[in-house]
Structures are given as C-alpha cells and as structure tokens.
C-alpha cells in the first residue's frame, strides 16, 4: 500500500464513528450495502475503500463525505 499510514488513520476514524453510534460492523455493512468483511478490512487497514464504498459508508452513517474524511493522517 502506498499510503499505509493514511489507510490506518481512516480505518480507525471509521471504527470510532461506527462505535459512537453503538453499531456493530454488521449493522454498518447492511446500511452501506457492503459485506461485514469489507468493513472489518477497512477498519483494520487491510483494504483501502473504493470511492463507491466510501460514499456508501458516508451515506449509511448519515454524514457528508467531507466529515468521513475529517481525520488526522500521520506523516510518513
């Protein structure tokens, strides 16, 4: 992965947003119409979310894409 630190930071941010709502990975996955394994792999930085999945996650969380991208990315 070219941007591993950023992928890790995004996954942690997604997990915080999900947990703040009291949602399981299954609930988020169903709401975003993706698999539970996809949510797991994004949160654990094993997968970089495609734009399509990213937008589906923002919609499921009822937040703007900008808010979903509002995380601190550590420098390399």
UniProtKB/TrEMBL annotation:
- Kindly give the PROSITE patterns that the UniProt entry links to this protein: HTH_CROC1
Residue ranges constituting the HTH cro/C1-type domain according to the UniProt record = 14-68
**What are the boundaries of the signal sequence?**
none
Q: Report keywords, A-Z.
A: DNA-binding
Q: Does the keyword DNA-binding apply?
A: yes
Q: Which SMART domains match?
A: HTH_XRE (SM00530)
InterPro entries from the xrefs? Answer: Cro/C1-type_HTH (IPR001387), Lambda_DNA-bd_dom_sf (IPR010982), TransReg_Diox_bact_type (IPR050807)
The UniProt entry, under PANTHER family, shows: HTH-TYPE TRANSCRIPTIONAL REGULATOR, METHYLPHOSPHONATE SYNTHASE
The protein in question is named Helix-turn-helix transcriptional regulator
């Amino acid at each position: 992965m070219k941007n591993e630190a950023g992928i890790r930071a995004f996954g942690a941010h997604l997990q915080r947003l999900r947990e703040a709502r009291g949602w399981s990975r299954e609930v988020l996955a169903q709401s975003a119409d993706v698999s539970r394994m996809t949510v797991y792999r994004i949160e654990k930085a094993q997968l970089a979310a495609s734009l399509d999945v990213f937008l589906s996650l923002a919609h499921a969380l009822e937040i703007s894409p900008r808010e979903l991208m509002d995380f601190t990315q550590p420098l390399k």
